[in-house]
UniProtKB/TrEMBL annotation:
Organism: Streptomyces milbemycinicus
Activity regulation annotation text: The formation of the proteasomal ATPase ARC-20S proteasome complex, likely via the docking of the C-termini of ARC into the intersubunit pockets in the alpha-rings, may trigger opening of the gate for substrate entry. Interconversion between the open-gate and close-gate conformations leads to a dynamic regulation of the 20S proteasome proteolysis activity.
Protein name: Proteasome subunit alpha
Assembly and oligomerization: The 20S proteasome core is composed of 14 alpha and 14 beta subunits that assemble into four stacked heptameric rings, resulting in a barrel-shaped structure. The two inner rings, each composed of seven catalytic beta subunits, are sandwiched by two outer rings, each composed of seven alpha subunits. The catalytic chamber with the active sites is on the inside of the barrel. Has a gated structure, the ends of the cylinder being occluded by the N-termini of the alpha-subunits. Is capped by the proteasome-associated ATPase, ARC.
GO cellular component, one term: proteasome complex
InterPro entries: Ntn_hydrolases_N, Proteasome_alpha, Proteasome_alpha-type, Proteasome_asu_bac, Proteasome_sua/b
Length: 261
């Protein structure tokens, strides 16, 4: 009788984690930022049918990277949970924290089960509050752990470099155009330090806008609206650059005049 092949539990879990991380790393990144009037979601996604960012409930949205069929199953399950809880109790009882706990249990159970492979997904669940201090953003890695995030967060293939870039430049109270510009700049950076040019057709953009009069705060930014928003910030940046250039020229002229005197 042959002896069964033995793998320590620690090694088995490490192998499963490595498998999941490699699958997630192959996906394009998603960035989530807080801005003055809500929460912004930006994903590099040329598809207009297969969304990485979706609405879950009135004030709650969902973003994911990894295998589409796996995170789509999780999204559908989250919508069902939210609808059932809101109908059974009250709409205010549906929270991002509760939804994140449900996703954490599901992902944790799958990750620790030897009967099936771990999900190759990483999720973000966000809820917009009445004010910036009430916003909630939770990141859920493949193993079912929950990370409470603030300000900005990135998931996907180049998440570490993007997160570092965002941490250095994100500030509270940014306008929507400023936050969008920062998100696009972070996504356009390659792992080798180079930069690409991302157009509106390559981006999936949505917001949870606390200023919307409707009960549902989720809104997608599409077509001409997104293009106009990108051009608005680009024009603002060009104007600032010209103003700095004019200021430098005036300073040089004053110094030259003083030298002649």
């Amino acid at each position: 009788m042959t002896t069964p092949f033995y793998v320590s539990p620690q090694q088995a879990m490490a192998d499963r984690a490595e498998y999941a991380r490699k699958g997630i790393a192959r996906g394009r990144s998603v960035v989530v930022l807080q801005y003055a009037d809500g929460i912004l979601f930006v994903a590099e996604n040329p598809s207009r049918a297969l969304h990485k960012v979706s609405e879950i409930y009135d004030r709650i949205a969902f973003a994911a990277v990894g295998k589409y069929n796996e995170f789509e199953n999780l999204r559908i399950g989250g919508v069902r949970y939210a609808d059932l809880r809101g109908y059974t109790y009250d709409r205010d009882d549906v929270t991002a924290r509760g939804l994140a706990n449900v996703y954490a249990q599901t992902l944790g159970t799958i990750f620790s089960s030897a009967a099936e492979k771990p999900y190759e997904v990483e999720l973000i669940v966000a809820e917009v509050g009445d004010g910036p201090e009430d916003d909630q953003i939770y990141r859920l890695p493949h193993d079912g752990s929950i990370v409470d995030e603030h300000g900005s967060v990135a998931v996907g293939g180049n998440a570490d470099q993007i997160s570092s870039y965002l941490d250095q430049r994100h500030v509270d109270g940014m306008t929507l155009a400023e936050a969008l510009k920062l998100a696009v700049e972070s996504l356009a950076r390659d792992s080798n330090g180079g930069e690409r040019s991302l157009t509106a057709e390559q981006l999936e953009v949505a917001v949870l806008d606390r200023t919307r009069p409707q009960q549902r705060k989720f809104k997608r930014m599409l077509g001409s609206q997104l293009t106009r928003l990108l051009e608005q910030e680009s024009a603002s940046a060009d104007a600032d650059s010209e103003a700095d250039s004019d200021s430098d020229s005036e300073t040089s002229a004053e110094e030259s005049s003083e030298t002649e005197e």
